[in-house]
Every structure is written in structure tokens, then in C-alpha cells.
Design brief:
The chain has helices at residues 308-311, 349-356; strands at residues 10-11, 30-43, 46-57, 64-73, 76-85, 91-92, 98-101, 107-110, 113-121, 128-129, 145-154, 157-166, 169-177, 184-190, 194-199, 208-214, 224-229, 236-242, 252-255, 260-262, 265-273, 279-286, 294-297, 319-327, 330-337, 341-348. It has 358 residues and is mostly beta strands. It has one domain (10-356): Tachylectin-2, Chain A, CATH 2.115.10.
């Protein structure tokens, strides 16, 4: 039985706001597969979406799978294309997202590679997508791509944490910009496998504070933890925050958007996946002075996949956010639908308070 939302969430009538056909590939022999999971920020008079763009080589022969690979030569990294014979018994092609080598317990190639691309809007709805990538894979930890960015504005700087994926695993990297024209990488801040990191927009008790989602491989579940840092690059004081529950968040949970501050506490819009890999969004209220304290959380989702662009796509039955704007009592949730498109939903803060039962 699918769970539907019970609060007044209004999807934008122009949804989906951005689709793969709206984005230009980074090179002429590539095609855009998906555009989704954008971090969001206000910069001057614009709304900035920093989107995950997944692209792959154009396929020209049904017997050959062309996959993107990042290769290093003399210290420089560039994307190349590798051709794999689909009849080769050494590989498993059953998952359209990945290629697995039969004799090892891991995947060796992804069929697409993601980078981060900027879209700009004056009204937060009508976006113009830039032609060139803003942050493109360029080191060994990004060999399979850069994914799922979050943007946190602190003291005049926009910090971008994103998932860096390679054969070495799934890590969280950090970059920064002041103008969304140039960007500086700051390196890996959480090692494999850790993702869904969200950094709070101000220091708390003198330290930076973040949500994280380590993924245990032997014992434990994919659940939400916290960490603190004196400088945004060295993180410690790791603490468990909240775990999975039966129902819409029975398989795993993780941070979504950057938390925003209210007079009742920090509100985090997070995601949960059930045992059918159906992704929905919920909310949790954290204490202002100690975000390790959970004050309340939603029993039911505040946003669930119901519309066609959320139910059907590259990976169906998914709503997933990496960024919200909280303005004039309205929570604007920018989210990926079915791992394929960008969409927008709005909800009044009082509706979230009601869902939190506070």
C-alpha cells in the first residue's frame, strides 16, 4: 500500500521545471540521460540550481556498450569512451546503470557519468541552463562522477558538498565559490561510503555542524548521524541521530536539503526509502542549540511520488531533494523526480509544523 501525503503541498504547475532535453551535453558525442537532485541558493537577484547532470556516450552498435571513463595522463584527467563487447561473458549487463565484472564482487563501470551544472532564474521557476559544466570530474575520487550537491551559504561563501564517486567508493567532497563563476575544490571530507551530507548554515557552539549518512557493510543500517568541525574540512564528534522505521522509511534514510532555521528549531527535509526502493520526503525538527536532539519528526511523508514525472523515469517512484528555500513562511522544495527531472513543490511552514505535531 502506497503512502500519500496528508498535508497541503502544492506542486508547481510548470513541473517538471527542467528535463534532459533542456540541457546541452558536455560534448557532441554524448547524450543527456537525467537532470536531477539540485542544490539551491539565492545569489544576488537569482535563484541558482546546481544540478546533477548524468550523460553517456551515444550508442552506435547494439552489440557494443560505450561507457564513459575518466583517464589520467601526466597528472591531468579527461573523459574517454570505452567500448565493451556485450557478448563478453566476463561482464554482467543486467543493470542498465552499471556494468559488473563477474569474478569480482563490485561494479567496474557506470553507464553514465555525472557532473554539476548551473541553471539560473529570476523567479525561481523559469530557468536558463548554462551550456558548460560548473564542476566536472577531474581527479581519481571523481572517476565515476560528481553527484547530488548541497549548497550552504556561510559568511559570504557558498560551500558545495557533493558526492564524489569512483572505483575507490562513494565519498563526500567539498568545494566553494563566491560568485558561481569560479569554484575551488577543498578535498574529501567524509570517506567511503558516506553521502547525503548536509552542512548547517551557521556555526553552533563555535563549530560547524553537519548531518551525514554512513553506510555500514556488515552490521547496521543506512541511517543519519551528525558531526562537527572547526574548519569544514576536519570532522569529528560523530554521533548517531535517527534511524529507519517501519513504513515509508523502512530501508534507509538520509539528509536531503540544507537545514533551515525557525523559531521552533532547525528543520531538515530528509528522505526515506522503503523496502521497494520508493523514495519519499519527511521533516524532522532539531534543537537550535544542540541539533543532536530530535524534537519531533513527521509520521507520514510530506511529499511522495504521485505525479507521472515522479512515478515514471530513469528510476521510478522517487522524490529526492538536495535543496530548499525558506522565504516568507513558504518552504520551496526543489526536488528530483524519478531520478530524471527537476521539479518544485511549495508548502507553508505551518503545514510542516502540523505534520510534526507541534
Amino acid at each position: 500500500m502506497q503512502v500519500k501525503t496528508k498535508i497541503d503541498v502544492r506542486r508547481n504547475e510548470q513541473n517538471p521545471l527542467i528535463s534532459p532535453g533542456d540541457v546541452k551535453p558536455s560534448r557532441s558525442d554524448f547524450t543527456i540521460e537525467c537532470v536531477f537532485n539540485a542544490g539551491v541558493a539565492r545569489y544576488k537577484d537569482e535563484v541558482i540550481l546546481l544540478m546533477r547532470v548524468a550523460e553517456r556516450p551515444v550508442q552506435v552498435d547494439s552489440e557494443v556498450l560505450r561507457v564513459p571513463v575518466l583517464v589520467e595522463k601526466d597528472g591531468e584527467y579527461a573523459v574517454d569512451v570505452l567500448d565493451i563487447d556485450r557478448n563478453n561473458p566476463a561482464y554482467d549487463f543486467s543493470d542498465p546503470r552499471k556494468v559488473k565484472q563477474i569474478d569480482i564482487d563490485t561494479y567496474v563501470f557506470l553507464t553514465s557519468m555525472s557532473h554539476l551544472r548551473i541553471a539560473r532564474s529570476k523567479n525561481g521557476v523559469d530557468f536558463v541552463v548554462e551550456d558548460k559544466p560548473f564542476l566536472f570530474p577531474s581527479n581519481r575520487y571523481e572517476g565515476f562522477g560528481c553527484e547530488d550537491p548541497r549548497i550552504t551559504f556561510i559568511d559570504g561563501t557558498y560551500y558545495i558538498n557533493y558526492t564524489a564517486v569512483s572505483e575507490k567508493g562513494i565519498t563526500t567532497a567539498l568545494a566553494k565559490t563566491e560568485d558561481f563563476e569560479s569554484v575551488e575544490r577543498m578535498g574529501i571530507i567524509f570517506t567511503t561510503e558516506n553521502r547525503d551530507v548536509t552542512i548547517f548554515p551557521e556555526r553552533i557552539n563555535g563549530n560547524y555542524f553537519a548531518l551525514q549518512r554512513p553506510v555500514p557493510k556488515q552490521i547496521g543500517r543506512a541511517e543519519m548521524w551528525t558531526a562537527t568541525s572547526p574548519n569544514l574540512t576536519h570532522w569529528g564528534e560523530h554521533k548517531f541521530l535517527m534511524g529507519v522505521e517501519e513504513g515509508w522509511q523502512s530501508l534507509k534514510i538520509g539528509g536531503g536539503a540544507v537545514p533551515f532555521k525557525t523559531d521552533k528549531g532547525w528543520i531538515e527535509i530528509y528522505h526515506g526509502a522503503d523496502r521497494n526502493n520508493r523514495y519519499t520526503l519527511g521533516a524532522v525538527l532539531l534543537d537550535l542549540e544542540d541539533p543532536n536532539k530530535v524534537l519531533a519528526k513527521t509520521k507520514d511523508p510530506i511529499l511522495a511520488p504521485e505525479e507521472i514525472y515522479e512515478v515514471e523515469g530513469f528510476f521510478g517512484n522517487v522524490v529526492f531533494t538536495c535543496g530548499v528555500l525558506f522565504e516568507d513562511e513558504i518552504v520551496k522544495i526543489y526536488y528530483g523526480g524519478a531520478d530524471n527531472v527537476m521539479a518544485l513543490a511549495e508548502v507553508h511552514i505551518n503545514e510542516i509544523y502540523r505534520a510534526l505535531e507541534i
